[in-house]
Amino acid sequence: MPALAVDAAAPVAHAFASCVDAARFPGGAPMLMVPTAAADSTTTTATKQEWSADLSSALYNVDGWGAPYFFVNDDGDVAVRPHGAATLAGQEIDLAKVVAKATGPRAAGGLGLPLPLLVRFPDVLRHRVESLNAAFDYAVRSTGYGSRYQGVYPVKCNQDRHVVEDIVEFGEPFRFGLEAGSKPELLLAMSCLAARGNPDALLVCNGYKDDAYVSLALTARAMGLNAVVVLEQEEELDIVVDASRRLGIRPVIGMRAKLRTKHAGHFGSTSGEKGKFGLNAAQILSVVGKLKSLGMLDCLQLLHFHIGSQIPTTALLSDGVGEAAQIYCELARLGAGMRVIDVGGGLGIDYDGTHSAQTDMSVAYSLEEYAAAVVAAVGRVCDRRNVPHPIICSESGRALVSHHSVLVFEAFSASSAAAPHPMVDTAFLLEGLPDDCRADYRNLMAAAVHGDYDTCALYADQLKRRCADQFKEGLLGLEHLAAVDGLCEIVARGVGCVDAAPRTYHVNLSVFTSLPDTWAIGQQFPILPIQRLRERPAVDGVLSDLTCDSDGKLTSFIGDRDSLPLHELPGHGVGGYYLGMFLGGAYQEALGGLHNLFGGPSVVRVAQSDGPHCFAVTRAAPGPSCADVLRAMQHEPEVMFEVLKQRTDDATAAALAGAFGAMPYLVFDADVSGGECSGMSSDSEGSAAGAAEEEDEEWEFMRGLTV
Ligand SMILES: Cc1ncc(COP(=O)(O)O)c(C=O)c1O
Fold first, then answer.
1. Which residues contact 584 (CB under 8 A, 6 or more apart)?
2. For 438-484, how does the pLDDT look when each residue is reduced to its tens digit (9 = 90+)?
3. 3-state class of 292 per DSSP?
4. Residue of 182, 309, 342, 367 to test ligand 1 pocket, by largest number of atoms within 8 Å of CB
5. What does the DSSP 8-state code read for residue 130?
6. Pocket (CB within 6 angstroms of ligand 1)
7. Beta bridge partners of residue 692, listed in sequence order
8. How far is the C-alpha of 94 from the C-alpha of 76, rounded, in Å?
9. Phi-psi region for residue 231, left (φ > 0), alpha (ψ -120 to 50) or beta?
10. Do residues 168 and 125 lie in contact, with contact meaning Cβ atoms separated by under 8 Å?
11. Nearest-angstrom CA–CA distance, 434 and 427
12. Where are the beta strands (DSSP E) in 415-498?
């Protein structure tokens, strides 16, 4: 019997190695050999020398999706050009230094914030606002367009107070306004525009409306805000007319048109004739008729439409804008007081840096080309119809806020590169096996002797399945199951069918909270290590988050990758290997949920400064604590604490209070303790890396459950 060719009592790893064919495994059956530590370190040194920051930049296509804001610097860190292409050499901000400042121990000048960390760059936001306005301004001036651009920011993209306030402030010279889609959004838009907006700025009120919403919008007009109530459905007209009569406030009305132009990508599902929103031709005529009969046709001043987010090409854009411009001209012909054409959102982001229209991850135009296409399409139609050029409004959200923030999170452990080489006691294994399993084993060994690796794999598989069945029947013990698994692993390595699956990196993050679109719609964001980029990232990894959910992972990445090039971690469970998720400033924060009660990240606001490190942290706040997320689910942390306190001593009670006050994420030795943030007070001292100017520093530490 071929099985006799091997010593049945010898550990199988050796027995199998002895019968493998040297030609198949040149160099002596490498699959069966565990690399030595010495060999490993030699390889690492060699690859370090061969690699460079430029190669990393090319590998992750940083210039493709990141320009003009993100690049890899000579230190091998991701860095930020806060003013885009206008950033001077000494103004670039090293992201790794920002993270060190934000998360470092307070005793060493850090802010002691727990990860994950959202880093906001208001300068980038300013640059986006200015670039959008400059692009339209150029298109208007260079074509002799007879009116102007006056955009609004749709607050649903990111309702964070500081983001909205920044946009209104930076947009003030451009009469930049806001768009709201619900009552709370309208309230925040009203107060923000009232406090710091340009008096001419538009306040576009979209979304389905009831009397309360419409009344609020009319009240905004009475306060001197330039609010426009946009009808999403024909029925809303009656609500507007009634509220206007009751309040004695004359409305400015807009109308959302349902275009026939349809965008084929994921974000186009709300467009086209069957789209969810807007009025069709008959409904538009009906609204015009009603307004005319009420003597209110002059109130209809704005035409709105939205082709969909991430419009892929300027050809589709021109088509849709051209169609809408025809409707605009028809409304003017019918006697409406038309003044504004609002082209909605859709100005896209090049998430994968390919500048192509093939997927939802990219778009085949620049900001300037987008603006030129809109202005040209409106101008062309109005000229043909002899209608005065309207003010062009856009509701560009994604394009304004995507770049302004970076989410930084840690990988804290990874599945091992190769499982330790199993040693199998064959005598023990054979002793307990039933006859059919023994036959499989013998056939397996025979095939090995003859170098028939396909047959080897077949018998190994059969043996494993039979043993699993025996185990389920209670006929084999765990030791046998482990021995068979070990044997099959040895065979797999020997025949070269070791599973080459990427390694799993565990990240201190909730995908559902911080990157919900990756889970919900398969969105990909650029993700890469923010440091060590002068070292070759030699490991292919996927990312698995903290939640107890099989969907809590990232397995597809820009560039058509199903794994991400990563580095070996500094150690297991130590933290300190930082990854950045870029271009996620739109939608993710508000869409994120509380799955497993993981709350949002800590947040810092980082401005370019003339200090030695080029940045100042002007605002810092830890993320929601365990108490905060419990409260969000109607629990009462204070009551819970009192109940638990009855059962323990003072020292343990203090620890319990700390647990309520800490963020829900993991804390590692390399990190500052999350507890360090608890009840922390303002402090601008010792801020070594990029210290904020004192007048800029407004620490907001919002937590602390006291015993
Ligand atoms: C009516 C409306 N306006 C503006 C936007 C913002 O679009 P984007 O983020 O693509 O600019 C949206 C998003 O879908 C929208 O529905």
1. 402, 405, 406, 407, 514, 515, 525
2. 888 888 888 888 888 888 888 888 989 999 898 888 988 898 888 88
3. helix
4. 309
5. H
6. 154, 157, 206, 306, 309, 344-347, 395-399, 586
7. none
8. 10
9. beta
10. no
11. 14
12. none
